[in-house]
Amino acid sequence: MSRLNLREIELAYDDSSSGPAIVLLHGYPFDCSMWREQIDFLGNHGYRVVAPDLRGLGESKSRDEIATMNAMARDVEALMDELKIDRAVVCGLSMGSYVGLEFVHLFPSRAQALILAGARAQGADALEKKSRQEQAERVLREGLGPVADAMLPKLLARRTLAEKPDIVASVREMILRTNPQGAAAAQRGMAARRDHTSDLLKIDMPTLIIAGREDTIRAPDDADFLHRGIRNSRLKIIADAAHLMNMEQPELFNRVTLDFIVGEFKN
Ligand code: MLT
């Protein structure tokens, strides 16, 4: 992992292979290791893959009490500047999709195309805000153990839970390594995220939306809403996958992503 000192934070990131750039933005409460299969696959197919640990998570350090999607998107822009990447395909999963939407809102000319997985356009309503505040307080009090127990059954599809113990174990380990302070800050940031509903019409870059058929955190209906709102978008639903579809069905996720990206770089 490389490190970039950015204003008040230190951002850790993986930057591998060479070619047109793809930036991968992870979900909560994870880090860039969730993209291992995509980093290797896309790198082997001629792309430069940049995957940061978003502020306060993974190996990135920050003292934020609230890590907003806006700050995370600005970190991504600063990282691209540092790496001399003018434009990239931006791919975000779940919290990473909120950051991706914020990124294209702030810096539309820096994204060649957008990939949104396990995504949602709407901001948090009062109930969601309250629940995120409670989760932030709980994670500071009790650490990530209860988060792992509560989230695992929702993050993964039934077949993954039953048949892929290595994936289950690596997701659990990734959650347990997360810094509670960073997790709480990210929860507060997600509570405050922008509602992108009315921005969707303005997104004119090619967009791929991917959903796990069994995802109950960000359901296929959320993906459908994005698909209907973003003019130049296509939608792919992956079976036997839930929220962490890229880890559960890496071959399918990689193939769908590569086909989309190849098409974009041809144009
Ligand atoms: C994620 O995977 O990033 C989270 O589940 C997002 C969320 O809590 O909305």
Describe what you observe in this structure:
The chain has about 270 residues and is α/β, with parallel strands linked by helices. It is about 45% helix and about 20% strand. It has eleven helices and eight strands. It has helices at about 35-45, 70-80, 95-105, 125-140, 145-155, 160-165, 165-175, 180-190, 220-230, 245-250, 250-265; strands at about 1-5, 10-15, 20-25, 50, 90-95, 110-115, 205-210, 235-240. The protein has an eight-stranded mixed β-sheet with strand order 1-2-4-3-5-6-7-8, with helices on both faces. The mean pLDDT is about 95. The structure holds D-malate. D-malate binds next to loops.
Topology:
Layout: E1 2-6, E2 9-16, E3 21-25, H1 36-44, E4 48-52, H2 69-82, E5 88-93, H3 95-106, E6 111-117, H4 126-142, H5 145-155, H6 158-163, H7 165-177, H8 180-191, E7 207-212, H9 220-229, E8 233-238, H10 245-248, H11 250-266
Parallel strand pairs: 3-4, 3-5, 5-6, 6-7, 7-8
Antiparallel strand pairs: 1-2, 2-4
Helix pairs in contact: 1-11, 2-3, 4-8, 5-7
Bound molecules: D-malate.
Unique bound compounds: D-malate
What's the β-strand tally? 8
- Order of adjacent strands in the largest pleated sheet: 1-2-4-3-5-6-7-8
**Secondary-structure element order, N to C:** EEEHEHEHEHHHHHEHEHH
Number of helices: 11
Distance between the termini: 32 Å
Task: Report mean pLDDT, rounded to a whole number.
Answer: 96
Quick rundown:
Helices cover 47% and strands 18% of the residues. It is α/β, with parallel strands linked by helices and 267 residues long.
Task: For the structure shown, list the relevant keywords.
binds D-malate, eight-stranded mixed sheet, 267 residues, single chain
